[in-house]
Write a structure and sequence with these properties.
Structural class: mainly alpha
CATH topology of the largest domain: Cytochrome Bc1 Complex, Chain D, domain 2
CATH architecture of the largest domain: Orthogonal Bundle
Shape: rod-shaped
Number of domains: 2
CATH superfamily of the largest domain: Cytochrome c-like domain
Helix content: 40-55%
Bound molecules: heme C
Strand content: 5-15%
Radius of gyration: 35 Å
Number of helices: 8
Length: 194
C-alpha cells in the first residue's frame, strides 16, 4: 500500500500575495523548533518572574545589602567618641547595637527591670514616665553613673560594662521609644542631662 499523498508532485511553496521592493515571501508555517523556542521563552519568563520577584529572591539581596549597610553604620557609630542625643538615637535605630544591647539587658538589667522592660524592683522603662529625665542623655547618665539617689539601688554601670556596652543597652532601651513621644513623656525630676 502506498499513500497517495506521498506520491504527489513536490508541492510548490505558496507565495504570499504582497511584494515589497520586489521581495516576496513564502507562505510557510513557522517551523516547530522556532515556535517551541518562542513558547519556552514565554514560560521561562513567567517562571523567572515568579521566583525572582514574587518569591522574594531580589528582596533577599536587598536585605543582605541593608544588613551590610547597618554593619558599616554600626562600626561608624561605635568609632564615634562623642555621645549625645543624636548618636544615641542613631544607635537605637541600628540593628547591631540594639541586638547587642538586648543581650546586655538580659544579663544585667532584666532581673530588676523585667523581661519586657515593664519594671519590677527597678522602674518601668517603656512607659512614658521617667524619674530622672525624659531625654536620651539622662537615661544614659543614670545607666552610666547610677541613680543620683544613692539609696535607690540603681548602681553605676560604666565600671562593670564599659562604654561600649553602656551605649548598646541605652540604644536598646531607646529602641522602644521615639524622639517625639520621649520628649512628651513626664519626668519627676528635671532631666539630669539634656
Ligand atoms: C538591682 C536592681 C537593678 C538592676 C540590676 C538595674 N536597675 Fe536600673 N533601676 C533600678 C532602680 C531601683 C531604679 C530606680 C532608681 C531611682 O528611682 O532613683 C532604676 C532606674 C533605672 C533607670 C532610670 C529610669 C527613670 O525613670 O529615670 C534606668 C534608665 C535604668 N534603671 C536602666 C538600667 C539598666 C540599663 C540596667 C542594666 C545595665 C539596670 N537599670 C539594672 C534597679 C536596677
Amino acid at each position: 500500500m502506498t499513500e497517495p499523498s506521498k506520491r504527489k508532485e513536490p508541492e510548490q511553496p505558496e507565495m504570499r500575495p504582497h511584494v515589497y521592493d520586489g521581495i516576496q515571501e513564502y507562505d510557510n508555517r513557522m517551523p516547530n523548533w522556532w515556535l517551541w523556542t518562542f513558547y519556552l521563552t514565554i514560560i521561562f519568563s513567567a517562571i523567572y518572574w515568579f521566583t525572582r520577584y514574587d518569591a522574594g529572591f531580589i528582596k533577599m539581596e536587598e536585605e543582605k545589602m541593608d544588613a551590610f549597610i547597618a554593619e558599616v553604620e554600626e562600626a561608624r557609630l561605635a568609632a564615634r567618641g562623642d555621645i549625645n542625643a543624636d548618636t544615641l538615637w542613631d544607635m537605637s535605630r541600628n540593628e547591631g547595637f540594639v541586638s547587642q544591647g538586648r543581650t546586655v539587658y538580659q544579663n544585667y538589667c532584666m532581673a530588676c527591670h523585667g523581661e519586657n522592660l515593664e519594671g519590677g524592683i527597678g522602674n518601668n522603662l517603656v512607659d512614658e514616665q521617667w524619674v530622672w529625665g525624659n531625654t536620651p542623655m539622662s537615661i544614659y547618665e543614670v545607666v552610666a553613673n547610677g541613680s543620683p539617689d544613692r539609696m535607690s539601688g540603681m548602681q553605676a554601670w560604666m565600671g562593670d560594662l564599659g562604654a561600649q556596652r553602656v551605649n548598646q543597652v541605652v540604644a536598646y532601651i531607646l529602641s522602644y521609644h521615639d524622639p517625639e513621644s520621649l520628649a512628651d513623656a513626664s519626668t519627676e525630676n528635671d532631666p539630669i542631662a539634656e
